[in-house]
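Here comes just one.
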Amino acid sequence: MHNIYLIIDFLNNIWVNEKLNLVAHFFLDLFNFKKIKFYFSSFALVLAVFPDQGYSNSNPDIWKLYFLAGQSNMDGYGYNIELPDGYKGKILNSMIFDGNRVNDGKPEGGIGIWEELKPGHGVGFITDGEVNNLSNRFGCELSFAKQIAINGDKVAIVKYSYGGTALYAGAGYGNWDPDFEINNHYDNALATIKNAFSIRDINADGLEDSLVPKGIIWMQGESDAQYSEVSANSYYGNLKRLMSLFREALRDNNLPIVIGKINDSNMNPGNQPTQPYLSIVHEAQNRFTNNDFCALYVSDTENYNYSDPWHYDTNGFLNMGIAFAKAVLKLEKTCK
């Protein structure tokens, strides 16, 4: 333990500014080896996302940044071909960094590029970090950005999602457990944030851009509600921890968080539920937002139609983005 405090003293001597406040407490618990992966990845994230290099422009463009994450209903299953005219092209004053979506243990998760927001960032989207290959689907990002930018604000969306994933390790096709032994979706999300912030001119206009985090939008939970009573009962603690870690990664412990309510289509054979433990996860999501002054629960999703047993239809994703935007704008007025 004494050596840990020597490390902090060393950091204090070489880097005396507010960044130390964010990372110093990481080292205090390093004796808990289950947390080592999180602490070192978080420390590296802070170093990379908030470098000390200066920019000559003293009046940078301000972009409101939102982190959108979750599983397949955050991926997006709306069809581009069904979009109304106002969403078929580029969304005005909106940029997106969509991190490469790979499963647990795979390389290159979270690489990407900034580009103007347009349809194609739904399921099937891929990127090699140099070129984005858009899909024929979209998610809530289109209507979300359009609603935020309605008053002339510049919107920067950082997105990382992967279908079928769970907070509880073993419950889905992949997981977000910060203590997982190998790289997983938590690591990929951190890499996405790091890579997004590493670009100082996101719209390539020759001027520095300032990315100001304004909210986290989370749409996930179906896999935890499907797998077992244990995974569902673990959801509250797992959600609370993960949201806290994302807030720390974005350097704002009061950053607004919007949780989207998951639902059951009852489209399984015999009208059987797709998620037997849904009520437990609902209670966890509701409990989290009730106990967090800077969080809101968006339940509009329970009124959306489905295109298959698991995913909303085109209008559902458009309505979802608008509902998320209204919720986070409401929180921006109260969470300072």
Summary: The chain has eleven helices and 13 strands. The two ends are 35 Å apart (CA to CA).
